[in-house]
Amino acid sequence: MEDRTQVYIDWVNSLFSSNKEDITINSLDDLSDGTIFIQIVEKLTHQRVRNAILSPENRKQKIQNIESSLELAQKKFGELHGVEVEPIVDGDPLLTCAYLEAIKTSSEAEVKRTKVMMRNTIVKREMIQKQSAKISTNTNFTFKTSNTSTQTNSKMGDMRISIAKRPSGMKGPPKKHVVPQSPLGLASSASGALMVEKSVPNLNTSNLPPVAPERPKTPKAKAEMKDIDLNKPPTLPSPRKSHKVGISFHDLSRDSVNAPPVPKRSYKHRKDRLEREVREFTSSEMEEVVVVDVQKENSEVVKTEDIKRINDKVFQVNGKLWEVKEAQGDENVMVELNLAPKVLKEFVVACARQILTEFTYSEQLEKEDNVIEDLHNSMKDDFLNQTIIKIQSYVRGHNVRRFPEVQGMAIRKFTMKEITSSEELYVSNLILLKDFYLQKLVEYKDEELIKNTMKDLEMIIKYNQTLLNALLSFKQANNIYGNGFAKQFYQFTMFLKSYTTYINHQSLVSDDIFQKSQKNKNYGNKLKELSMQPEVKNQTVFSYLILPVQRIPRYELFIKQLIKNIPSYHKERQDLSRSLKAVSDINKHLNETRRINENIQRVQFIASKLITKKFDLADDKYRRYIQGGFVKLQGHPQKFSLHDLTERPHCILLFSDVILLIPATKPQKVGDENQVDTLLNSGKFKCKDIIPIYTTSMIDFGGNRCFFINKESTYLIAFETADEKKRWMNLEDDCLVNKYASLVSKGAELRKQTGMSCELTNAVNFDEKIKLFSKPDFESEAYYRDNQTGMWNICYLVLIGSIIYVFDNAISLVNKAPPIKQVDVTNFSLKSPVISTKPSSFEISFRYEEHTFAAKDDEAKTLWMVALRIAFVKFNVWSAMSKTETLPQLIMKEPLPFLIDEMRVNEVTTFLNNMLLVPENRICADCLFREVSTVDLDYGVFICGPCSRSHIKLQHRTLKKGGVPVLLFKQVIDFPLKVLSKLQTLGNLRGNAYFLKSIPENQIPAKEELQKYTASSMAQWIMKKYSFLPADEIVY
């Protein structure tokens, strides 16, 4: 458990290792207030937790923190099962680890899912970008019109248009002339007008020369323009002369959205060009459309309505909207855009927003031009040089400050300053505690406990004053980075063990002073008088007494901060690392000492509240308090019967070696106080039911109930919920693990020294050992997890002596196949895993070897745990040789509801009890769903009443007393054990495998089909199944 806990602690610390705020935890207790959980969830979900309480002061606020973190985690990752808030606040390590595991696995799955979604989004975006790029580069547009639109406007059929940029500076109406189609299918004019032509098949234009666009107007060109007759077609230029290709309106839109970088010169030219492009882009009237009919001899020029460009992909032609739908080759296909009034309104708003954005961009560029132009005019050589030098110094300083070494120096400087100031304040507060509180309390009332505390405090002040003098010398020498601090502090760590005696006395002194202030009014008034002294600054004595306890963890945080911000090659790093290890070890030792002292005090407190006979709760110094709660005891422990389950409320107290049951009713919760403490503070209680853990079997009974069974009594306990029952069973299991683990290690050491083996059942080879499988100690179907693949496989477990044999199934055992694995339980420690995909799992592990099994349900799991611990105690080498540390053997029995109470107890009833412990023997071997009430001695199976009628008709050997050996439980009691041997040799599990091995698998009905069988169908199946009578002795 400690190794697994450390894994989670390291994982939490690794989450915050890259943060500026150093957040570290030393144990799972640091998570109980919920603040770390909130930061973990915020870190993994990238969201903020609302209503987070950074410094919770009571239990309610801690619960609120954990609930807030759980709510955000479930909102992000989905439902997290098995997480309970209150046990985490109480410091339950099992459920705290379970919550951390749930967050960890859910966040890792979320990261993988996000990566897949991002990868798919990137692929889709690249496809859209390629399609958009293809659409934006095409300048040819094909209008696909419907039949209705063609009939409405006969001049608008399927058309192809080419858009070219109209040259700037051209005024007046465009020239009206017809231009033949170019080889590329583009219609253009000398003025760069927009031309539309009807698609005419078989048009041969291969010999026509290309048309050049109009060149910019020069003064000479302007003069020549006056002589041009607009009614005559222009002379086409020679094809040898090169010309510029027209720029599409899509190019203009891209230039407007993705603005070019601002150049240093030519502000006016760039500004004019931008205004011209924006004006053309947002112009409502484009060029004329000329429709050419080449079938007529004389081409007639027909004017259509204006073409207007709405945005990048939408045009208005003859009052209708057309949208670019796709790109086919070098042409964009346009379809008519029919919009509802509401959608049309949104479309108009979007277009207006685009135009407004472009004008805003233009105005912003104009402002930038003015600023740059003013700077350019005011710039001089000296000013320029000074500015360049200043900028270079800023850049160099910025780059240097980004180096980790330089950043670390700043943090080291701040950390050393904080260490010095906090140490100075700490020593002064210790002196105040000694002079103004403890000294005066001793003068008021001479007490040995306070005197001893003063002596411990004087020793602490002496050592810390030495450290403070070293820190002040660093400050006076202007040693702001603390060079040499590591060596001084490492020498100081050798004296930190002096804190141990003070911490042992601190809790006793605090409790003693508090109790006296409550009982003695004069003593309480004296404390108030001392707290009013101006030197103590209105702080109580308790706030000063706790200071040395809190100081050691703060030293550890300071050293971690220094190590984090110091280069790996620094000469101080080695001493700082040694100091950190020393402080961390001392901190763990002090925390453990404090927890032990607090637990011992709690045990003594509970012992003072109980009235017991021949049992002293405080006599064992190794006894520890684990947990308390409230349950209902059902039935009478000494005369237990399942027919009389009278409920009585009890308070249950779990210790490391014993369980106490106190008759009491659960009190109402008062503030933040624990309800068990509320009950114990109300008076003294008699305790008669004392249950030793090491001689008691804890067996699940389904729902929220479980059994505590020992030789003298049987306790059936009902918890408030099923989850609370599981938590108590895990805690009891941990107590047994701690006790058994020491025997495992001692046994392993003894085997290593002597060379002896405890595998008593392995003394013979497997062929000879097969005879032992006819009488196993325990067996059932289960699951086994493959350590390499992590997959769970169905298996058949057989426990003989101290060895677990793992078979593929019961048929493998019947066919005398060797086991796939065998484990000696005396070499391993047994426990329930904290987190597992199977809820009823148990783990057998030792050092680096681990085997994980899972039973069918919790009841079968607890029976396996008891059986394995019996084998451990019986065959463990150290337990067998040691007379002082031998463990008592657990009880392997369970009250069963189908055995008659009036049956007299003898060896036969004990045999039936042991056989019915196997869960499969409680369900009929034939119908597989009814409870058993009868046995068939010849076929060695347990069956139900209806199936027993068909068994009577089978082939049987006649009993000596006459009749067929198909008997009820109450009839079996008069037979000797030798007659019942087949029940142990076969039983329901192996019996089914034995009788079904000769039947083809496709003829064996499933469990669901058997439940639907009629009485006649079931009788036929039983006759087919038991086709032969087995021999008297069956050997596997």
Structural class: alpha+beta
Mean pLDDT across residues: 75
CATH architecture of the domain at 404-597: Up-down Bundle
- CATH superfamily assignment of the domain at 404-597? Dbl homology (DH) domain
Which ranges are low-confidence, i.e. pLDDT below 50, for 5 or more consecutive residues? 147-159, 161-267, 281-305, 757-764
Instruction: Describe the sheet with the most strands.
Output: 7 strands, mixed
What does this protein look like?
It is a single chain. The protein is α+β, with helices and mostly antiparallel strands and 1036 residues long. Among the domains are: 4-116, Calponin-like domain (Actin-binding Protein, T-fimbrin, domain 1); 404-597, Dbl homology (DH) domain (Dbl Homology Domain, Chain A); 614-669 and 681-736, Pleckstrin-homology domain (PH domain)/Phosphotyrosine-binding domain (PTB) (PH-domain like), CATH 2.30.29.30; 777-879, Pleckstrin-homology domain (PH domain)/Phosphotyrosine-binding domain (PTB) (PH-domain like, Roll), CATH 2.30.29.30; 907-1026, Annexin V, domain 1 (Orthogonal Bundle). 47% of the residues lie in helices and 13% in strands. It has 32 helices and 28 strands. It is flat and about 130 Å long.
